[in-house]
Amino acid sequence: MWLRASCTLDFSIPVATPFLLMLRPRSGAQQWVAREQYVLIPSVPAVEFTDLFGNLCQRLVAPAGPFSVHTSADIDAAESADTAPGAWFVAVENLPEVVLPFLLPSRYCESDRFARLAASITAGYAPGYDQCVAIVAYVRRTLVYSPGSGQQIISAAEANQRSEAVCRDMAHLGIALCRALSIPARLVVGYLEGLQPMDFHAWFEAFVAGRWYTFDPTQRDLLGGRVAIAYGRDAADVAIYTQFGDPVEPPIMRVSVSRLDGAPSW
Amino acid sequence: MWLRASCTLDFSIPVATPFLLMLRPRSGAQQWVAREQYVLIPSVPAVEFTDLFGNLCQRLVAPAGPFSVHTSADIDAAESADTAPGAWFVAVENLPEVVLPFLLPSRYCESDRFARLAASITAGYAPGYDQCVAIVAYVRRTLVYSPGSGQQIISAAEANQRSEAVCRDMAHLGIALCRALSIPARLVVGYLEGLQPMDFHAWFEAFVAGRWYTFDPTQRDLLGGRVAIAYGRDAADVAIYTQFGDPVEPPIMRVSVSRLDGAPSW
Amino acid sequence: MWLRASCTLDFSIPVATPFLLMLRPRSGAQQWVAREQYVLIPSVPAVEFTDLFGNLCQRLVAPAGPFSVHTSADIDAAESADTAPGAWFVAVENLPEVVLPFLLPSRYCESDRFARLAASITAGYAPGYDQCVAIVAYVRRTLVYSPGSGQQIISAAEANQRSEAVCRDMAHLGIALCRALSIPARLVVGYLEGLQPMDFHAWFEAFVAGRWYTFDPTQRDLLGGRVAIAYGRDAADVAIYTQFGDPVEPPIMRVSVSRLDGAPSW
Amino acid sequence: MWLRASCTLDFSIPVATPFLLMLRPRSGAQQWVAREQYVLIPSVPAVEFTDLFGNLCQRLVAPAGPFSVHTSADIDAAESADTAPGAWFVAVENLPEVVLPFLLPSRYCESDRFARLAASITAGYAPGYDQCVAIVAYVRRTLVYSPGSGQQIISAAEANQRSEAVCRDMAHLGIALCRALSIPARLVVGYLEGLQPMDFHAWFEAFVAGRWYTFDPTQRDLLGGRVAIAYGRDAADVAIYTQFGDPVEPPIMRVSVSRLDGAPSW
To answer: pTM of the full predicted structure?
Structure first.
């Protein structure tokens, strides 16, 4: 499935401000970036680096005044997300090293506080993939997906006290519950084709049977058409943008995802 | 200063349980490990790996029954910790990439919530090292160091509501305040010669004038005789041990640090 | 300076063949990628990863038949390469860890065999940048730049026996001589605006006075307009493409670099 | 099998000289370091870091005069090396990223020049482990193991022209032939219990059926009792010591490996 995923951030910057941006989807196992644009207006020097989790990050100092970031990518995304009912739990001692960071509690996923709840939710389910499915069902029972309801980032424990949540909160709760069962889980920030209302999206992946699988508690059916921008332990690792110094007003943000007819020609 | 730093953890394991341990100090810029022991009783297979922050970690499955971990290291530690009054603030755009993870909020250091407090504490201080000194003074005014008072790990925001704290909490608060000023800060877990009562210790480092400097809010004078075991963003990254599965009782723990007469002979 | 750098590789593949490609310039300290295309015809699944040196690499299996790789990037490149006459030599013990791999002998840069020659060439020059300048002058005296003269990759020691060389050989010789003086040096593969005849280009960077500086033994004047695609110890690390299995005919290759009027608009 | 592996390097240093040492075996999947000593006489500041391949390396400046490095480790090593006749070849497109660097030609393993020979040696063997066995047999037919015969490091291509070789040369030739068949292969430097005459040893590992397997062309039977000190693409990556500046005489070197009665007690 060929998609064009774009976003524009329009900032109004009171005084020159350092930023970290995380807005460049990488080609990876699940997606191929065939075309991309990353335009800064006004054009300022920017430096790119790779963070601890392999995400491409951009550093720059936004000048005072209006400042816009436009990105767009034409990407070959998977038609559907793989599912694997019954896929087995990987014992902690057999997990590959690279997934271990996703087993520990993190800023917004206090998995150390979810042991009992996770056990109760998944009682009777086979260890592994089926536990994750039970967790997603619990998150969907507990929280009504309410896009736009959450400004401040809340943690999994806080989300679990509420009745409404944004995609990020639902993913955090799913992640914390998976980790409480010793299933590595990570947050994905990206685009989802057909999301209503269109915006950046967040879901999670869990590591079972030797690979990462996609879970999205906001959606009844696990849709394809996903473009991952960044992976992390939770929202603290994968902010679309981070600013330093005196607070800048949140930008006016426009996100769009549309289908392309096919592979880009040359 | 040559030190022998040792610890013993005596566990009683109800059922075979996977563990991550972080108990092997590495030689580095500040310390040289001349002798080391790491003995598991009973002896079980263990695998070592390096985590995201460069710490040496050990993975093993502790068998049911009594299980002891003994480590000891003879180390050349610095006589005193470097200080640098007046050392300059490094603008975010000039920070080396490797320190950027220590600038963001993390599990127990919600630096995003400390902007106002950090500004108020450091008003009138030169940006950089002197701000860190003012932060340490604030932490010492706010929290009475009370070893043994803290079982559950609390966050910087929670610590800031209290009057007593353990070393880890005081370090977390210092870190959160530094990051709120865009000064990278990281938690160090290790040994401190002469600590009363003797135990593992935690302090923090802040990045100013191009390098890391040591700060320890629990101590009136910044003592030498430190042995770093692990570095991380906060306590979530540098647990001495992490166990998975059903909870195991905390171990009986013995820590000791003694001076050696000089460099080990062969 | 805004440049559009493009290449097309047209392969004729006898039987499905695994490839590694290294054709995606990364934004970095010296260049900003504002637009990019990476089109495979026919479109096949490709996976991207980051190698030991931070280069973005693409893996795919080229299908039997005609197979084309087209890449194009609009990049803000430096107007001129920085120079620093007199910049000091960094003693080995003070070098940052990340540059150490570029101090050792490598596949095509047998720096262990160049100690005497390097000392003789640079006698009387101040340690550091000026030694590198003397080395470049030596390479230019010794080897006539003859684009297209070299099919098989030869080593620095082999190049030093010849009278003609391609850009890669000249860079290898420069690198080996720098390393023989304990100056870290690395190969850069990329584009150079105005190169005659237009092709991929190779030059080198040496680490003096705390940063990397550009040197290009093929050019009388050190021109700007450079787009780095990949960095490595020598040509073994930074092949534009590597194929596995039965040999495939080299592709028909077209490279172009043109100036753009200014920053891309949105 | 519990082993004590020790070495002493006695240098006579004419003028203060920077060194890189690679003498600290790490605990890993195959071995557990229970006790260790690393003593420098005279004691000088040393800094430890992890190289691109995960090896622990030590940097120091050796002072003028006699300088000794003593290391000793008590290690739980495998009784025997795993073998896996018939284990399958992993297609290049399915190899994990971390093994890809071991697929390319390197300083002393010019695998790009061995395609025909590798194909001829392994004709009729099943792809994977059995090809590696055939390669080891070829190396043993071609080269007589002659410890002490090799001072200068020669490459696989050079070794293939000779009739006698040291362990390192035989490993290089094995590695180059494996890589020529698209089987990742890496050099291991370490200790081997019972080696005659006792010295540091080198062997290689090849990646088949999803993991690394040990091969040692110097030994008729694949013995256990191995302690790995360092892994790399070839000898250029894993020198026991590297010195910079004016050449220092090779050290007087003593290596010993002895069996211990059992696990170290506390």
So the answer is: 0.91
